[in-house]
Amino acid sequence: MVRVAVFASGNGSNYEAIMMYTAALADPGYEISLVVCDQPQAGVIARALRWRTPVFVVERRRFATKEAFEQQILARLRKDRIDFVALAGYMRLIGPTLLQEYYGRMINLHPSLLPAFPGLDAVGQALKAGARVTGVTVHYVDAGMDTGPIIAQQAVPIDGDDDHDSLSRKIHEVEHELYPRIVRQCALGEIILDQGQVRKPGSQR
Ligand code: GAR
């Protein structure tokens, strides 16, 4: 059984979408074994308790350095024998401590068509830019801010009367449909990162 950790800082609707998708599979071959959360008030914690996923709450401010913070996370990932990490609204840059161990085994979800609108509030950035289309990207995590190799993207049209709430809702709908499928494929090795290239073994490329 492949053991997956989900990292989240907020509401956790994508975590829950992954749980629902996985629960509906007859023989998933992976399980969500841990939630790592850096915000003690985050909604994802209550969701994880309902699904009976163990939660590791770890606050950055309790550590002098980012390295010490990530060492603490890494120790827990090792203890729980975590094979694969899916970031789902985890609002911190991943540092070298975690990357060294999980590069190629850690993916992120971002609410824009990268490389457009990286970083914070991608929905607000798209609205402010007057974009007619934005979307969702799933990519491998590297040392940059939302810069790693892209695995999947899906567009979301922006209507003239969209505001932050309505556009966020549309983006979340697409995320909830897309991300759980990609998490499954990457966790099971149906999609892999091979010398910096995203490959789907068995498919012609
Ligand atoms: C999602 O829209 C995700 O794409 C975004 O945070 C939201 C989390 O929602 N992630 C980022 O902006 C990362 N740069 P959720 O807590 O309801 O899953």
Describe what you observe in this structure.
With 205 residues, the protein is an alpha/beta fold. The chain has one domain: 3-Layer(aba) Sandwich (Rossmann fold), CATH 3.40.50.170. It is built from 6 helices and 9 strands, in the order βαβαβαβαβαββαββ. A 7-stranded mixed sheet has the order 3-2-1-4-5-6-7, with helices on both faces. Strands 8-9 form a two-stranded antiparallel sheet. Strand 4, helix 4 and strand 5 form a beta-alpha-beta unit. The chain starts with a strand and ends in a 6-residue tail after the last strand. The model has no long low-confidence stretch (mean pLDDT 97). Bound molecules: glycinamide ribonucleotide.
Helicity range of the residues? 25-40%
Summed up, the domain count is 1
N-end to C-end Cα span = 28 Å
Residue ranges: pLDDT <50 for 5 or more in a row? none
Largest sheet: 7 strands, mixed
- How does the helix and strand content classify structurally? alpha/beta
Oligomer kind: single chain
Number of strands: 9
CATH topology: Rossmann fold
CATH class: Alpha Beta
Mean pLDDT, all residues: 97
Overall 3D form: globular
* String of helices and strands: EHEHEHEHEHEEHEE
